[in-house]
Design brief:
alpha/beta; transferase; binds S-adenosylmethionine; S-adenosylmethionine-dependent methyltransferase activity; Rossmann fold; methyltransferase; 9 helices
Length: 266
């Protein structure tokens, strides 16, 4: 397994990922996508991004930091694409393969095991704030995308000081910093909005809540559960008091000439 920047994050993104898979198996396949998207957005946020990614059924789509694969599975079901997932936590990768049949690989976003210009679109949802090397992760996304490809992002941004403790290991950029990082990596921001994280159908929320309750029933006493709850509770508090904003953006990979066809005479 690849290491994250804190033990609490590994509890949240590895151990709890495995428990989520277990709970989905106990409760039924219809809970899988809602539970698999719990780590980040809402169905409304996914729809907003998907509508702007210029997806084609035969297009090559990457989800970097895919977690257990809920968003990638939603894209496959709703938009007919076959995404490839990259995610550092082995239990999450296993869950994405077994729950959704996704093609998933264990990899850090800063070291993607793909050739240059391998993808026509990518998403990276709720990931940038979990790594201090944001520039490296964005540079790598640019490298594996073709010129003109679209990138969909969900970033929890903080434009001022936080009013309470940040979850361990997280570093929230401001919107201005995120825009600078994107430009430096070779992306041009096309459109942004603020996600409404409550913007999911009622049955989706009910299913995700049921999986959370099942995980708690089975593992509520485990120190990893307590640690993961504390971390996600901190994000929840910062979002509800407005210290953090769920920022959605679609950006285009600016042409570098690197993967353009060579038309020079010699
Ligand atoms: C909040 S979760 C979001 C998961 C998924 N994208 C979703 O929207 O449901 C953040 C994910 O980023 C992953 N992650 C953390 N550091 C990363 C890095 N350096 N590169 C790629 N992924 C990373 C974590 O393991 C975790 O699965």
């Amino acid at each position: 397994m690849t290491e994250l920047e804190s033990e609490a994050m590994e509890a949240e993104f590895d151990t709890v990922a495995g428990w989520t898979e277990e709970a989905v198996r106990a409760l039924g396949a219809e809970t899988a996508i809602p539970a698999g998207c719990r780590g980040s957005g809402s169905e409304g946020a996914l729809r907003w991004l998907a509508d702007r990614l210029a997806l084609r059924p035969d297009g090559r789509v990457l989800d970097s930091g895919a977690g257990v694969g809920g968003p990638a599975a939603w894209l496959a079901t709703e938009r007919g694409v076959r995404p490839v997932c990259a995610e550092p936590m082995a239990a999450a990768v296993r869950a994405s393969r077994r729950l959704f049949g996704l093609r998933s690989v264990v990899a850090m976003g800063q070291q993607l095991p793909f050739a240059d210009a391998s993808f026509d679109a990518a998403v990276c949802l709720g990931v940038l704030c979990t790594t201090s090397d944001k520039a490296g992760a964005l540079r790598e996304l640019r490298r594996v995308l073709t010129d003109g490809a679209r990138l969909g992002l969900l970033v929890f941004v903080a434009d001022g000081p936080l009013t309470s403790a940040a979850p361990e290991g997280n570093e929230f950029p401001s919107e201005a910093e995120t825009r600078e990082l994107l430009a430096a990596a070779g992306f041009e921001v096309l459109e942004v909005t603020e996600a409404d994280l409550a913007d999911s159908p009622e049955e989706w929320t009910r299913a995700a809540d049921a999986v959370d309750a099942e995980v708690e029933r089975r593992h509520g006493q485990d120190p990893a559960f307590v640690q993961a709850q504390q971390n996600s509770g901190r994000v929840g508090r910062l979002l509800s008091d407005g210290s953090l904003r769920p920022w959605l953006a679609v950006a285009t990979a600016v042409a570098t000439g690197r993967n353009a066809r060579d038309t020079s005479p010699n």
